[in-house]
Write a structure and sequence with these properties.
Helices cover 32% and strands 21% of the residues. It contains 16 helices and 19 strands. The strands form two sheets. Strands 1-19-18-17-16-15-14-13-11-9-7-6-5-4-3-2 form a 16-stranded parallel β-sheet. Helix 10 crosses helix 11, helix 13 runs parallel beside helix 14 and helix 14 crosses helix 15. The chain is globular, with a radius of gyration of 28 Å. It starts with a strand and ends with a helix.
Length: 526
């Protein structure tokens, strides 16, 4: 097969720009039309945009036409009075007929709620379309804001919703709640007042027990973690018309049950959980009674993920994380059947350290229609706090080969494979595992067109050498000799200041070092 090596793409950390004699950057910018100047100023914190008024008469009143505002008291430290006076001054001198965006960080203004309400009411009168509010402790917004008909996107962090308040966000399409506790009644009230809502994002939001979304317009639900509360350890999602579902980050020990997601075509399940027990490093000394005490929890969770595969089997695009493949590893040891998946695009986000190739292979075996496979690999030290129940399977699965599937399993539709290796993964230690995975894919494909291996950093952060190119280049050559498909090895390198002489010496070492380890993979596969 053809093997291509793409030269590292160097992104310089700093560049120098020369300005011709007699020419100033200020002069060139000042010649721009007001519309473009306002677009530039809208990208700055409002305080910085305001200071441009001292540049020249040309700039004196440009800021008054701004329609996007970002107010944060960080630069004022504890001088909240100065910050409040500044916001009042800017809004009172605004000549914009309507506001595009209004972002307010008011965590230090909890004793000035009436003033905050006045600012939000002013934004509502200006038909604001996009609002971001950071507040702590939770701040209840004024009633006028809850009936803002011009609002399109809303992001509330550490805020508060009230179940008995009237919500009439008729134009709202996207809402993001962050670091909040909301109960079922508040969510139901929110959904009933947002008839045009399309996207819901919850970041570290908890308190609810059931997300029931029956709107035909809501197509996307993203849950980024689930915060601790006293509502119990389970919650449900019932969204029959949802098309995109994402469950990510830390769910702690909460179990999310999918009641109805029958219309989902794109799902990303990469969340992580914790065992209900918190063992220390001395896990090997745990007795059988300790192990059994959390076995029911793990058994229930395995059953839950089985149900995920069943409920998401008709999705065309699927992304799974390390936890999912590890649980599949355990299911296969117990000879539990995995439902056939209909996805054409499959992405796996894996930790190379102790991740189970056996579980990943089982998931691939259930995805016979897949055409595109993307695998991202990051280095994650094996969690010593895992209990015995988890460890005894993961350690066993990590050592099992994949060749047992070759005689009975074929990827009949797989055309494109891409493996992306992020910084922090040491190829010196993990080349054999990567070769196992790559060789398994190549030997079980029929119509494969392209196989890409991407390294996001040239010099390893662990061993201090260029182990990526030293090991991956020979790997690509070796894989290319066993297939007719095109194999591409790419490197993307960030360079701040590197001496060329140092690079040349490293490259010479790289050539000899890679050859010494090229034959070590055959022993692993035999």
């Amino acid at each position: 097969g053809a093997v291509f090596f793409v030269q590292p793409k160097r992104e310089l950390g700093s560049t120098k720009h020369k300005i011709m004699a007699g020419e100033t950057l200020d002069d060139r910018i000042s010649e721009l039309p007001d519309s473009l100047l306002l677009q530039i100023l809208s990208l700055l914190p409002t305080e910085e945009a305001f200071t441009t008024c001292i540049l020249s008469k040309r700039w004196q009143y440009v800021w008054t036409s701004l329609d996007s505002f970002f107010f944060s008291p960080k630069r004022y430290w504890e001088r909240t009075k100065g910050f409040r006076s500044f916001v009042d001054y800017v809004l009172s001198h605004s000549t914009a007929s309507k506001f595009d965006k209004f972002e307010l960080h008011c965590s230090s203004l909890y004793t000035h709620k009436s003033q905050i309400s006045r600012w939000l009411t002013f934004a509502v009168k200006k038909n604001v379309q996009h609002v971001v509010i950071y507040s702590h402790p939770p701040y209840i917004m004024p009633q006028t804001f809850f009936t803002c008909s011009s609002l399109i996107t809303l992001h509330i962090a550490n805020g508060s919703l009230v179940s008995d308040i009237v919500i009439a966000w008729k134009s709202l399409k996207t809402i993001k709640l962050e670091g909040m506790a909301v109960v079922d009644a508040e969510i139901n009230n929110l959904l009933s007042g947002c008839p045009a809502l399309e996207t819901i994002v919850f970041n570290s939001v908890g308190g609810f027990r059931r997300l029931e979304i029956n709107s035909l317009n809501v197509k996307t639900l993203i849950l980024e973690g689930y915060c601790v509360n006293n509502s119990g350890h389970t919650f449900e999602i019932c969204a029959p018309y949802l098309q995109h579902l994402e469950l990510s980050r830390d769910f702690q020990d909460f179990c999310c049950s999918l009641v109805d997601v029958s219309s989902v075509v794109n799902a990303k399940i990469t969340f992580d959980i914790m065992c209900i027990k918190d063992f220390g490093d001395d896990y090997l000394d745990s007795d059988e009674e300790d192990e059994d005490s959390c076995s029911d929890y793990h058994e229930n969770f395995k059953t839950l993920l089985q149900d995920y595969l069943q409920k998401l089997r008709h999705a065309t695009e699927l992304t799974f994380g390390t936890l999912f493949t590890q649980v599949l590893c355990i299911l296969q040891f117990k000879e539990v059947p995995i439902p056939e998946l209909e996805c054409k695009y499959l992405a796996l986000e894996l930790h190379l350290e102790k991740f189970s190739l056996y579980g990943a292979a089982g998931l691939l075996q259930a995805s016979r229609l897949v055409e595109t496979l993307n695998i991202t690999i990051e280095n994650q030290p094996f969690d010593d706090s895992r209990c015995c129940f988890e460890r005894k399977y993961l350690v066993k699965g990590d050592s099992i080969g994949l060749q047992r599937y070759i005689s009975s399993f074929v990827f009949s539709n797989l055309k494109n494979v891409k493996i992306v290796i992020f910084s922090g993964v040491c190829m010196k230690e993990h080349l054999k595992k990567l070769f196992k995975l790559s060789n398994f894919l190549l030997k079980n494909t029929v119509v494969l067109e392209k196989f890409i291996i991407v390294s996001n950093r040239q010099r390893c952060e662990i061993c201090g050498i260029k182990c990526m190119s030293r090991f991956l280049s020979p790997l690509a050559k070796k894989l290319g000799s066993s297939t007719d498909s095109v194999i591409i090895f790419q490197q993307h390198v960030y360079v701040s200041s590197v001496a060329k002489s140092d690079q040349d010496s490293d490259d010479d070492e790289e050539d000899s070092y890679g050859e010494d380890h090229e034959d070590s993979d055959d022993e692993e596969e035999s």
